[in-house]
Task: inverse folding
């Protein structure tokens, strides 16, 4: 069996902030987090077992109870449901003998679990068997995988029969497709000599770098669109002994997968951006926070970092510059969408629950370990490397007045060429739809559930830009045949599942909104109920603590605005004085159901 | 028990009734008709109405009680200005009665914890109906030893609803007087406001939740 | 530094950085709160103290006063918003005041009474959450918990500084856990403090039921609003 608590503690320097790493070690060794090992970790860290579980139980990949030998996580996404998810799910239950969310099968081989988007919307349905990924699932393929596992093969052997080394890009390419559809101007253009690029940057002063970033007009690519230059300047001028650069690779927005592709095709472009950021703000410590769903990238990314270290592009006195010490470590998450929120991500890096912090203070002032922290998205860092290669004017010349440069789109759904596209900001919705071969499109989910569901007919001329249709990279096409209300429901359910629960409007309000949509779908709503739900939405958006609550009602609000008929067509005219929302059939069904349940006792 | 073709079961307010005597009708003329009902509650709220004590006498110059839990009159005859509803909705008779009140009252008031959020009867919501029935009829300590297990089920016995619900989840309610039971003063305050045609303004000082 | 800002149109003077909720109270404007615990670090979990600051909704416990801020508290829209949040709490748990030991000294009840809470606009959920009875002198009635985090953050073992209360799970499934061993080491006055710190009836001392007659209980004797505003009981 596995490691004992002491070995795990030693491996991670008895450092409380490395708790997620410790939990992964324990879970890999034991299959779950055994009580005695957790107690040992708690003792070693001078805390209580409850405190360890406080962190562990926040993340859906950590388990405090044993499961089957293999845990199978099937991604439940809107796109998967367009691609035969139901058949795959049914077949998994049939082949394994387990049920989703239930106990393992009688032989103890398999546990089946739901998981939200795993960043593979262009090759759904997809599942993780522990950390090994399988894509483009069909019922037959699933049956084959389960048969092999039953016959004794490991998930690793099933997925990688050739035994490709994990740190090789060939391994990553064997598991998942990258589907890059455009080349340049910013991404996937040609190999760059990062040594020269970093050397050239280090010739400049940090102020000059900051100026160039500011001049380029770059805005954060994570979604919020804050000026990167301004953020860096704030971080540079913030007082602190030590500063940090964090790369947010917790790409959790359903429908997005561009960061996975960037990390696969251009990891050093991203890391070079981090080095430049570290130099510009005076940071010594770098972290890449990688979502656990992308665990198959770990060894590959470690190798890239090792190569950079060997080249002197990371580590102490970088490129002979005394006093510029900067290194990067990988931090793997534990399964939580809200950790994409920068302050929640920092909490997670510190080994805590991913609870978003109160702001202010912002991370640039007090971030990781309370010290000034510059946190940017994968795409932002990759862009930075190119801006410093080509110059801010080159970058500024692309895009629109308020949105400089280009945007990577993760395109999926009803189109003939899903994948990664680079478009200049300002490109219209129609132009993107044409580019990707949209098939009878009715609506587009721009920027995922937290963005807008727009109408192809009404919004075709709108531009992908911060000043019009802001987009974090997700671009999911819905054909005319799709059930939009069902999609709204899926997205609201996603937010309910992923809410951290710390604040009331988000924790309670999102569930109420979901139930409200359920009532609409069941024909138990009248017009007044929708008006109420709009009011709830405003309250959730306004009063919640972080960006999750600020955006979670958008699937409802944006479809209500663009496609009111999907709601109106379900309205019920109340009969008499009884409210439409009162479900009389449900109310009267309970007695007979109880009698049936008690039949055996009575007869 | 009910052979095919038997007359349908009537709600209590649908049963035939004797019209009130002429002098009663005359005495009521010009007064504001009010009605009260206890659904699934303990009648404590109704007793709070009695806690108006002697204040009820001058009030009766302005209002007349057409249907109340105390008189056991089953229906509201004609239009009613104000209906007080005690208790939550726990069976199908409660649903019908509440609808009847909503149809006949201009203003409908939820009185007390059970009416407002289900109250004590709603504790069964967390247990489930089957467990309640089992406990009450099958595993009951008062069941006669050796007697056959019977759970009442008859067309004329209202079925229990799956869960106990507050009144405002079934029909629209206009006002709420909280408390378990509310203070007689609270009932008086609301009634006086309505009788005088003033907007209802229940002081927080006499409102309580327990 | 002394600064000026306006609250509902009135100019008030305060020290920069003072939590807005306290600035409001000092100037006669009551803002309801549940998680806020004066003198302790801000939790910002309940959001019941939401106001508008320069047009945007913000939790007034979590924002420090700045010069020139325009704060709105008592608009119909904001009253409705705060009340909606309280209604969310009422439907989420089981807030059975008639049978609760904390009635009359419960902050949630006091806030709701002050708002004249009526029937909630959301359907009641009637959850059945497991209670925690394992400790000798303290128990958790989780149906009443509003997840404010006061106990998690502010109650610590006096010897080791370890957490006695902690969180488990997330989202609507999140709940408070009790470290039984540490709970059993709590001296009686710390138990009383923990019970008092809980703004609802979720943390209770065993063996204590109703110990103050109706009419004389904490918020009956001196209303929450008057306490917050520093006004003597009427």
Result:
């Amino acid at each position: 069996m596995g490691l004992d608590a002491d070995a795990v503690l030693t491996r991670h320097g008895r450092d409380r902030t490395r708790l997620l790493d410790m939990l992964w070690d324990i879970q890999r060794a034991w299959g779950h987090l055994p009580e005695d090992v957790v107690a040992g970790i708690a003792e070693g860290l001078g805390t209580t077992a409850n405190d360890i579980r406080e962190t562990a139980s926040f993340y859906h990949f950590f388990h405090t109870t044993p499961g089957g030998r293999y845990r199978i996580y099937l991604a439940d996404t809107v796109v998967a449901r367009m691609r035969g998810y139901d058949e795959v799910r049914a077949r998994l239950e049939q082949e394994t003998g387990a049920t989703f969310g239930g106990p393992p099968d009688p032989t103890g081989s398999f546990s089946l679990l739901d998981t939200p988007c795993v960043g593979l919307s262009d090759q759904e349905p997809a599942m993780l068997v522990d950390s090994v990924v399988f894509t483009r699932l069909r019922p037959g393929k699933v049956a084959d995988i389960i048969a092999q596992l039953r016959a004794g093969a490991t998930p690793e052997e099933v997925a990688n029969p050739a035994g490709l080394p994990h740190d090789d890009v060939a391994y990553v390419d064997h598991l998942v497709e990258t589907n890059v559809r455009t080349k340049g101007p910013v991404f996937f253009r040609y190999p760059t000599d990062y040594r020269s690029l970093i050397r050239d940057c280090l010739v400049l002063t940090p102020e000059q770098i900051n100026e160039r970033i500011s001049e380029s007009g770059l805005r954060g690519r994570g979604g919020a669109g804050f000026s990167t230059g301004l953020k860096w300047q704030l971080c540079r001028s913030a007082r602190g002994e030590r500063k940090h650069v964090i790369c947010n690779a917790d790409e959790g927005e359903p429908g997005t997968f561009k960061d996975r592709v960037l990390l696969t095709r251009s990891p050093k472009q991203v890391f070079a951006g981090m080095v430049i950021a570290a130099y510009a703000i005076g940071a010594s410590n770098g972290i890449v926070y990688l979502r656990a769903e992308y665990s198959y990238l770990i060894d590959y990314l470690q190798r890239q970092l090792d190569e950079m270290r060997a080249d002197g592009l990371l580590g102490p006195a970088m490129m002979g510059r005394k006093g510029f010490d900067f290194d990067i470590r990988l931090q793997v998450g534990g399964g939580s969408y809200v950790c994409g929120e920068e302050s929640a991500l920092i909490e997670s890096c510190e080994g805590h629950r991913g609870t978003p912090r109160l702001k202010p203070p912002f991370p640039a002032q007090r971030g990781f370990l309370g010290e000034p922290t510059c946190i940017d998205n994968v795409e932002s860092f990759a862009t930075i490397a190119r801006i410093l290669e080509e110059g801010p004017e080159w970058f500024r010349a692309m895009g629109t007045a308020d949105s400089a440069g280009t945007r990577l789109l993760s395109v999926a759904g009803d189109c003939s060429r899903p994948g990664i596209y680079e478009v200049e900001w300002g490109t219209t919705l129609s132009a993107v739809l044409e580019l990707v071969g949209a098939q009878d499109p009715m609506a587009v989910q721009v920027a995922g559930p937290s963005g807008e569901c727009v109408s192809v007919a009404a919004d075709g001329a709108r531009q992908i830009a911060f000043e019009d249709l802001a987009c974090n990279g997700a671009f999911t096409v819905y054909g005319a045949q799709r059930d939009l209300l069902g999609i709204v429901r899926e997205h609201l359910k996603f937010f309910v599942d992923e809410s951290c629960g710390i604040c009331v409007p988000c924790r309670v309000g999102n569930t109420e909104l979901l139930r409200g949509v359920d009532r609409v779908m069941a024909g138990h709503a009248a017009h007044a109920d929708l008006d109420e739900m709009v009011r709830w939405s405003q309250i959730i958006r306004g009063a919640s603590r972080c960006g999750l609550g600020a955006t979670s009602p958008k699937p409802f609000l944006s479809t209500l605005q663009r496609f009111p008929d999907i709601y109106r067509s379900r309205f019920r005219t109340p009969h008499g004085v009884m409210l439409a929302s009162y479900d009389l059939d449900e109310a009267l069904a309970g007695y007979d159901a109880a009698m049936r349940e008690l039949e055996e006792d009575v007869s | 028990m009910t052979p095919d073709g038997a007359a349908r079961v009537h709600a209590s307010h649908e049963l035939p009734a004797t019209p009130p005597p002429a002098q009663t009708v005359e005495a009521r003329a010009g007064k504001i008709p009010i009605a009260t009902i206890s659904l699934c509650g303990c009648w404590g709220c109704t007793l709070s109405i009695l806690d108006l004590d002697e204040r009820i006498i001058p009030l009766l110059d302005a209002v007349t009680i057409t249907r109340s839990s105390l008189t056991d009159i089953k229906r509201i005859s004609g239009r009613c200005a104000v209906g007080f509803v005690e208790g939550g909705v726990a069976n199908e008779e409660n649903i019908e009665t509440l609808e009847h009140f909503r149809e006949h009252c201009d203003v409908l008031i939820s009185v007390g914890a059970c009416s407002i959020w289900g109250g004590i009867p709603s504790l069964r919501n967390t247990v489930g109906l089957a467990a309640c029935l089992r406990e009450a009829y099958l595993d009951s300590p008062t069941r006669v030893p050796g007697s056959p297990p019977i759970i009442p089920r008859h067309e004329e016995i209202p079925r229990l609803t799956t869960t106990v619900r507050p009144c405002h989840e079934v029909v629209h309610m206009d006002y709420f007087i909280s408390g378990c039971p509310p203070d007689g003063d609270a009932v008086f305050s609301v009634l006086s406001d309505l009788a005088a045609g003033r907007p209802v303004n229940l002081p927080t000082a006499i409102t309580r939740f327990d | 530094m002394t600064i000026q800002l306006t609250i509902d149109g009135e100019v008030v003077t305060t020290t920069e950085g003072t939590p807005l909720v306290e600035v409001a109270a000092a100037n006669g404007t009551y803002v309801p709160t549940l998680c806020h615990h004066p003198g302790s670090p801000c939790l910002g979990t309940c959001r019941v103290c939401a106001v508008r600051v320069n047009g945007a909704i913000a939790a007034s416990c979590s924002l420090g006063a700045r010069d020139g801020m325009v704060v709105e508290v008592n608009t119909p829209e904001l009253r409705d918003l705060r009340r909606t949040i309280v209604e969310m709490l009422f439907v989420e748990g089981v807030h059975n005041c008639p049978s609760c030991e904390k009635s009359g000294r419960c902050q949630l009840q006091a806030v709701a009474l002050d708002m004249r809470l009526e029937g909630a606009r959301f359907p009641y959920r009637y959850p059945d959450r497991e209670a925690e009875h394992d400790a000798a002198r303290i128990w958790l009635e989780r149906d009443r918990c509003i997840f404010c985090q006061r106990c998690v953050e502010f109650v610590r073992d006096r010897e080791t500084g370890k957490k006695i209360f902690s969180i488990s799970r997330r989202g609507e499934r999140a709940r408070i856990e009790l470290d039984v061993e540490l709970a059993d080491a709590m001296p009686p006055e710390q138990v009383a403090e923990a019970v008092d710190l809980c703004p609802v009836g979720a943390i209770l001392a065993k063996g204590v039921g109703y110990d103050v007659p109706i009419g004389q209980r904490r918020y009956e004797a001196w209303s929450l609003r008057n306490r917050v505003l520093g006004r003597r009981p009427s």
User: Anything to note?
Assistant: The interface with chain C takes residues 46-48, 50-51, 53-54, 57-58, 336, 353, 358, 496-505, 507-509, 511-512, 515, 532, 535-536, 539, 542-545, 581 of chain A (CB under 8 Å). Residues 42 and 49 of chain A are 5 Å apart (CA to CA). Residues 70-163 of chain A form a domain with the Glutaredoxin fold (CATH 3.40.30.10). The mean pLDDT of chain A is 96.
